[in-house]
Amino acid sequence: MLGPVILAASRSDQMRRFVSAAPGTKQVVARFIAGETVDQVVPIITDAADKGLEVTLDVVGEDITTPEQAAAARDAYLELVERLKDLGLGTKAEMSIKLSMFGQALEGGHELALANVRPVVRAAAAIGTTVTLDAEDHTTLDSMFAIHEELRKDFPQTGCVIQSYLFRTEDDARRLAAAGSRVRIVKGAYKEPAEVAYQDKAEIDKAYVRIMRILMEGAGYPMIGSHDPRLISIAQELGRRAGRKLDEYEFQMLYGIRSDEHLRLAAEGHRMRVYTAYGTDWYGYFMRRLAEKPANLLFFARSILTK
Ligand code: FAD
């Protein structure tokens, strides 16, 4: 019950100010956010690589209000590409992008987001890595998929994300499960209405399994984004049945969540990618992590009260 309340709070400026200023916040945020600057995140990338893990990097931020902020977001990713070039990790260090941060919600936002994201995707391709477009709330998805399709004409390795809580997603998965595509399946992290999304956890999980089957049996490259142990073992079984080798799909988990499991799957020979978020505008990302697990909220409340 707490999840939807926290997700509603994630859109509130008043809550943003309160949470950002609260004593103790920084320490809890640090569990999910790898750092504030690219300099702080570079050692985390190399440490992950030393442990046999791969990463996808997310510069946090989404509720921008001006084209200048969208351009700044693009530049932050271009700065990141420069650093990734020096590390020379290829696709072992790729990037995840939220198009809202690139201007999608502004006037003329579809074209603006496409214009801002294209140079980042081009720069990524030039250093031998990839970009994945995150899935945000359902009202943004037609635009995200259209931008994804457009980018794939020149950069076919560009990935995208689909969410099992949405009724539309099985159709999207069938369309996307084609040769050369890279698709991350997740449960979905936004507050969505009953007209478009399953509300019941068991229904969301069942849909997740149906969608994984479509992706595993298809010709694309499935990226299984979940910490759910049941879904992870079903993914392994579906991969086996579809005749996929261990490097013909990958697991993805979030930085700071079930870190032992990252290492266990990598040690079993799986490709394991850690979604590593960094930056100063962490509020929306952080609140979604609290909404996913009420125990996080208790931990957060305790750390504020004891400061
Ligand atoms: P759950 O049933 O929520 O969790 C299973 C178990 O994992 C829990 O019991 C708990 O032990 C652990 N766990 C899960 N979440 C947390 C947490 N926050 N803190 C502590 N423990 C936790 N959503 C989108 O809408 N769009 C995206 O583009 C997107 N990208 C993602 C990329 C990756 C790599 C991952 C892993 C998730 C992404 N998500 C995205 C979030 C996703 O939609 C879910 O909200 C989130 O992954 C929780 O679902 P779960 O599959 O882990 O299962």
TrEMBL record:
Q: In which pathway does it act?
A: Amino-acid degradation; L-proline degradation into L-glutamate; L-glutamate from L-proline: step 1/2
Give the source's domain of life in one word: Bacteria
Q: Where does the Proline dehydrogenase domain start and stop, copy by copy?
A: 46-299
Catalytic activity entry: L-proline + a quinone = (S)-1-pyrroline-5-carboxylate + a quinol + H(+)
Q: Which UniProt keywords apply?
A: FAD, Flavoprotein, Nucleotide-binding, Oxidoreductase, Proline metabolism
- The question of whether Oxidoreductase is a record keyword is answered with yes
Instruction: Supply the enzyme class, top level.
Output: oxidoreductase
Q: Which InterPro entries match?
A: FAD-linked_oxidoreductase-like, PRODH_bac_arc, Proline_DH_dom, Proline_oxidase
Pfam families xref list: Pro_dh
Cofactor requirement: FAD
- The Enzyme Commission number assigned here is 1.5.5.2
Q: Does the keyword Repeat apply?
A: no
Q: PANTHER family in the record, alphabetically? A: PROLINE DEHYDROGENASE 1, MITOCHONDRIAL, PROLINE OXIDASE
Provide the protein name: proline dehydrogenase
> Which organism is this protein's natural source?
Streptomyces rectiviolaceus
